[in-house]
Amino acid sequence: MAEYSHLFAPVTIGSMTARNRLLMSAMSINFGVDQHGYPTDQLTQYLAARARGGVGMMLVGGGAVDPTGLELPDLPKLWEDGCIGPLKTMVDAVRPFGACFGMQLMHGGRQSYHDQKVAPSPIPAPAVVKGVPRELGIADIHHMAAAFGDAARRCRDAGFDFIEIHAAHGYLINQFMSPNANQRQDEYGGSFDNRIRFMLEVFNDIKTKAGHDFPVGVRINGEDYIENGWGLQEALKLAVILEKQGADYLHVSAGVYGSTQLTIPSMYVPAGCFVDLAAAVKQVVTIPVVTVGRIKDPALADQVIADGKADVVAMGRALIADPELPNKARSGRQSQIRPCIGCCLGCIHAVLQREPGGCVANPDVGREYLLTDAPKPVSSQQVLIVGAGPAGLAAARQAALQGHRVCVCDAADAVGGVARLAARAPGRAELMDVIHFFAAELDRLGVDMRLQTELDDALLDQLKPDQVWVAGGSLPELPIIKGLFACGMELFTVLDVFKPPLFSQSNVVIIGGNQAALTAADTLAEAGKTVTVLHRGRHFAEEMSSNDRFYLRERLKRDNIALHKGVSIQTVTAGQINCRIQGNAVTIADIDAVVVAEGMKPVRSSLDVLKRKKIAFALIGDAKVPRGIMHAISEGEEAARALGS
Asked: pLDDT per residue over 499-515, tens digit each?
């Protein structure tokens, strides 16, 4: 029986009818184009997988209309007619799967990663991208408006069903509209009517060149969330004007580079964080309104539409994590949806580092064109996996999908390994979503799960495994610091912070500045303890995505937390630590507990029995080298794929 009747009802947008109200957002994935900027099979198959998965509408992300507006190096380039043929090849490959297929047109303006940036005014972007842009002259502005229209015509010639104008997120059109970026004194600056002039010229040029019957949506910010930025009242005025001009839908988002609420929020931000902005716009227009912002649950998406807050729900990262999300949701298989965990690491952080996008939860992203449905092995093998953390669970699922007999053993009483503890930090519970997914999958696939079970001779003799993977995870490494173990203070590892009950000591020093150290500081401070973080390195939590780290650092701006980097610890004595901070001698006094959070070391205790019995094995995940959850899941799945190949 079909689920979520509101979400999976058809919707008409201009001359186009989509099979459901789920839109895959345009996302700058930064892969899948050739040296000309034309789409390759990599991008095509990535998109085809999402169309096949049942989404109603989908957009190619970041199609640049002019060389000066190429936000990232490996995005589609739309400024020459040579793009039409390759785009048509991509459209023809995606169309059979039934999704309405569109292209988002954009110009990065001052937020472009190159040295030829242009903008309404010569003002640098507030964050992320460096460099002062060149101010556009009047002739330049007319050229840019025409570039949007020409790109739209090329997209229609290539067979796209619709296009979306990107007028949000601090890119060029939004820069014209926002006083924060536009300080012009001519007809394109100052008043509201002047600041939206470029937007309207772009829109009219597109309609003239692509045809008034060609569906055109506009993505706008409901709020810039930055000082002297574009706000909701202006967005409401613009929405009414765009509807009168002939816009076919409005897609309401928020944020710019450097805003206090990020455009791509992490797990710290509540789901549906921008829905109220779309709901406000929907009150003043009759055309369909699209909402977005941390919506990954089909139930929430369905409720938003049922409540009349939006007509269409856009999902981005959720469809990167699982392209089959719509089909699974509609057929009642929600437990089989591979979840986005809101870490922003593979999808956003990698792209902003000008690397190909990916996904922590889904290692297949960007490799769809290389992967086919693996044939079942000629003979099923008995696989034993020691450890039920992310790597072990991922390997077990993939091996079971390939038809092997799989047993997972772990001495703990629950699956998840260190990830289960990490998820106990404030705001980080979504880390467990991927663990719950794997656990449900292993149950569905009939994997033999043995918790509270150590690897021993009896288990090996019983199973007689053909393949053994050791995924025992990692434990905190203790540093060598003079006096640390003889100071008489209570000494804990970072894992102890997340194991209830929380220790009673109230004045705590954390040695280390990685992600675990900062989330431990957050946990302790929220419990009312005074926390001092001493980090030897130059940067905090470098392994986190910049988006995720932003929200954590905001949480750490408390009176009972002190963060220090560039620290050299000299000695530890009873109740105090003597150190140098940025070269200055400092004594931290009145300490009653020290938490060590400087690194992890592999757990390989199970190797003794394997070596003694001369059983071959392979190390995966943190048991091989301690790293993040992204590496663990990817390595586990790859090990299973290689089995019997």
From this structure: 999 999 999 999 999 99
